[in-house]
Amino acid sequence: MASKHKKRFRLLIQLGVAALIALAVALIQGLSLRDPVVESCRHLCDGFFITSVIYISLGGLVFISTTGFFDMFSYGVKSLAAYFTQRDKDFPHFYDFKCEQDAKRQDKPASYTVLYVGLICLALSFLLLALFNHLSP
Prior knowledge:
137 residues, mainly alpha, 79% helix
């Protein structure tokens, strides 16, 4: 039960951060309280879209990392470091390293809240785009 509350809390924190990023982008684009609603929708749509691209990209990397795709790169960097520090004899073979990494991944289930926040921001961006198209002359 505590896990659900922790996930919801993480999701709410990330949604708050995403909203702040979207607001900052909209302010940089020229958002003002004096602007008509149409212009505000356009600036907020841009802000939420840029935020969604960032969050979906990071969420995609989190998803890919849970599959073990980056294990080969990690092994290469660590074995190269071991080679130059003269610890090459103690370094495990790739199969042993891969089995170790898989065991570590099974202990920690992945959280896809970053991806969910990105999709929510994308939906908000499309909603604001539809509102902008409906209100524009």
